[in-house]
Amino acid sequence: MLTRLKRYFSIRILGNPDIRNPREDDVELYKPCDVIVDWPREKKKPFVGLTRDTNENPHWTKYRRFLKNNGFDFEIFEYHRSDWLEAAKNFDLIIWSPNSGPAELDEIKRKIYILEKKLGKKCFPDYETLLLCDDKVMSTYFLKMNGLPVADTFISNDYHEIEQMKTKFLFPLVSKRFHGASSREVDLIKNPAQLSRFSRRAFSFYGKKCSNAYFRQKNYVYLQRLVNGDGLDVRVNVAGNVVTGYFRKPKRNDFRASGSGIVIKEDLPLEAVEIALKTYGLIGKAMLGVDMMRDREGKFWIIEISPFIGVITPIQMKVDNVPGCYFLLEDGTLEFKKDNYWPQELAMKNFLERNYLLPEAEWKSNFVLSVVSEKKLKRNFKG
After folding, report:
1. Quick check: keyword Kinase in the entry (predicted)?
2. Domains and their CATH numbers in the chain
3. CA 124, CA 27: separation in Å to the nearest integer?
């Protein structure tokens, strides 16, 4: 708390530059399992450029652990510098560790586009993944295009359409800004008059204020049906054939579960796992977090997805209070093991297999979609 106050005083009051140094953390603290990729001896490994992030729970330290454990040569890539393009030529693969925030993501998107689309460099995550990263509007379009059970969502950049529709909506509605995590910029709109006030601010000359002092919500609304049910938000993480997850509970007198800090690590509902696996297979990225809520009829609805998962601990699930994860087998069995992994390392393994070792069709693990479509999922618990 004191550190945040000092930073606020330095940046907001004194006007000092908002410069943050890359974070370090103890990646061995929770005794995670090693993630090892089966790399053929005769195949040359790519030389890796590793970027560093300043997030409170950094990504880059997990990638560094993976690279060291798998014998990849790498150097730190200082991509903020003016000579970033020249420096990038030295690497076969660049691993990006995105910082949170629209300005940071905009910088990375531009540079990954140039490296991938114009110079033929491999990047993790790739450009398409970055389009989905911390962008609720884009990810909702992807979900709808693929016929996935996303909660009813209204997205419009037309002020007059919003005014025409306001009396037809079933309130309350959940308003979200296109980016942001932990329930920041999430509001409950209870009636047409409140929606009118909200949209007038969003479509005003200056836009609507947000938690980012330099960024505003401008010329759009994102409105989602409030899923009335048990109030719990279930998160299912999928990376390859490894499945983890947990529940989040809102604070008293609040509807927002994400960001509440109340996490319940219990076994996952099979229906939620099925939806997450189907979503993962159709989106086709190295890892995916799927947030869902269950309505009163027991049906799960997707409220958000995240192709880039940040965590505090590799212990992301417990069954009967035993930490571990599920491994999805080809016959549809979810085999529980007492193994815990950093999701960043699992994603890195999947990316390397897809781009260097396996044909595209094989990597996409067609058995995942067939297992889900044929309703073959079942559980098996092992020590």
Report:
1. no
2. 32-132 (3.40.50), 152-225 (3.30.1490.20), 229-381 (3.30.470.20)
3. 20
